[in-house]
Amino acid sequence: MKVYNTLSKQKEEFVPLVEGKVSMYVCGPTVYNLIHIGNARPMIVFDTVRRYMEHKGYEVNYVSNFTDVDDKIIAKAIEEGVSAEEISSRYIAECKKDMAGMNVKPATTHPLATQEIDGMIDMISTLIEKGYAYDVNGTVYFRTRKFDEYGKLSHKNLDDLRSGNRSLLVTGEDQKEDPLDFVLWKPKKEGEPSWPSPWSDGRPGWHIECSVMSKKYLGEEIDIHAGGEDLVFPHHENEIAQSECCNGKPFAKYWLHNAFLNIDNRKMSKSLGNFFTVREISEKYDLQVLRFFMLSAHYRSPLNFSADLMEAAKNGLERICNAVDNLKHCAACAKTEALTEQEREALAEVAALAAKFDEAMDDDFNTADAISVVFELVRFANTKTDENSSKAFVQQILDKLLELGDILGLIFEKKEEILDDEIEQLIAERQAARKARDFQRADEIRSMLLEKGIVLEDTREGVKWKRA
Ligand code: AMP
Ligand code: ZN
User: Fold this and answer.
1) For range 136-156, the mean pLDDT
2) Buried b (16+ CB within 10 A) or exposed e, 253-292
3) Rounded to an integer, what distance in angstroms lies between the CA atom of residue 302 and that of residue 314?
4) N or C: which end of the chain has fewer CB within 10 A?
5) Which residue owns the Cα nearest ligand 1 atom 7?
6) Of 329, 327, 332, 301, which Cα lies nearest the Cα of 405?
């Protein structure tokens, strides 16, 4: 299996540190709002990497954090007049719902930054002892120039970086020894969450979180560290500096980064305001469609979001689900059980397609090619099976199709699930029926929704609904 390593800028053969096991850390979201579909890209992509590794027989220890202390969380808490903890726990719960909808498996561990402060204080203390960090009036900085290999991940030259940043030092913005030094610990401001430390009552910088959580849950050296490409610099570069200077060992063997999800060729982001939340998408589409759309591109290629592409993804997924439906029908109606000689020969093609699927995934997780293979299998199923096929033949094709879907985290099943949009439409129709005193139709709609698990409540402010 070959994986592209940002560190070497090359595809490399994947050899885990411990045979049969993979340790993997994926930087998770900062939880101050609903996640947008740009944030969903690394979740879907690296969940697929994990699933493929598991398919290859590896035992995967998958760690992904939630950043639950941050300026944006604090700002949101002040805006709403609630605690930062209330904001972060609310959006962690919402994020987990979105992940479940996208069929992203829960991580082996989802650590929270605020629960790991002791480990951060330990690591910062070690860095100070070793001369890699220093305290100025309660703020602790990492002494970047002391780490010779700084810049090795982002392939940036220290001198260029320094001249680009010189203005920072000139403005006297803070008391760093060098403009490239970054914060490990900062003193609290009034009203902010804080923890006691040897340097000040304060809170950790962002980068130290991941170094500490990765070490605690996976060990000093890990196989894979991953995230979106905007994290390469400075976040991952700084993580390498902290971890390698503290532990005296290489940090991660393979660094994997997904390209951006764009809109009109610009990165989708909260700050540009050009985003859709996963929740918004779920009102129009089953989130399986979103997952299918994401995997239809290679994870290192930029992907432009558009309504047309989502429609294409919906149609593509539907074609596969129809084939699965047909196979199930054929299996149920089959008149014979055992394979014929001809069918046995035909199954060699299924095996060849399965091998081709693995070949695509072995080439740096080329999910776009892997999906093409799924379509080849669909074509095979549609042309080679009918009511005269044996049950064994149909079942083997069906099992293979579902297995390939499972590796990609796609459930090839038509869901009877009702979308928010349709619910709203039915509620409007029910209101109209009541107004026209057609109570029979109104009741019919209520029972129909109830059957699908939607409970209506008539309140003074209008009709409210919830999923039971
Ligand atoms: P954040 O909450 O901004 O730290 O982002 C969480 C994860 O989402 C990180 O791995 C980011 O790199 C990734 N990410 C954010 N925006 C995008 C985007 N538009 N496309 C792809 N990945 C993104
Ligand atoms: Zn991180």
Assistant:
1) 96
2) bbbbbbbbbbbeeebbbbeeebbbbbbebbeebbbbbbbb
3) 20
4) C
5) 39
6) 327
In degrees rounded to 5, what are phi and psi of residue 375? -65, -35
Quote the mean pLDDT of the chain.
93
Measured from the Cα of 231, ligand 1's closest atom is 12
Q: What is the DSSP letter of 152?
A: T
For residues 62 and 22, give the distance between their C-alpha atoms in angstroms, rounded to a whole number. Answer: 8
- Report whether 103 contacts 412 (CB < 8 A): no
Helices 367-384 and 391-408: angle between axes, nearest 10 degrees:
160
Q: How far apart are the first and last CA of the chain?
A: 44
In this prediction the pTM is 0.89
Three-class SS of residue 149?
coil
What is the structure's pLDDT at 169? 46
- Nearest CA to 46 among 277, 296, 258, 288? 258
pLDDT tens-place string over residues 266-315: 999 988 989 999 999 999 999 999 999 999 999 999 999 999 999 999 99
Q: What is the spatial distance between Cα 402 and Cα 392, in angstroms, rounded to a whole number?
A: 15
Tokens of 28: 């998770």
Which residue's CA is the nearest one to ligand 1's atom 1?
A: 29
Number of neighbours of residue 300 by Cβ within 10 angstroms: 16
Interior/surface letters 351-361, b for 16+ CB within 10 angstroms, e for the rest: eebeebbbebb
DSSP H helix total and E strand total for the chain: 15, 15
Q: Cα-flanking dihedrals φ and ψ of residue 284, to 5°?
A: -105, -30
